[in-house]
């Protein structure tokens, strides 16, 4: 059995998400950005 983990990356920057996916490519990790959750207000 293979376990996987979902990580939420607190960014809207698609380049940053791609960079992190590249770093974690050897691991069973699913990455989601803030865009996967609909409208989220900016944090001041």
TrEMBL record:
SUPFAM superfamilies xrefs: ITPase-like
Swiss-Prot/TrEMBL GO biological process terms: nucleotide metabolic process
Protein name, per record: Non-canonical purine NTP pyrophosphatase
GO molecular function annotations of the record: hydrolase activity
InterPro entries: ITPase-like_fam
Assigned keywords, A-Z: Hydrolase, Nucleotide metabolism
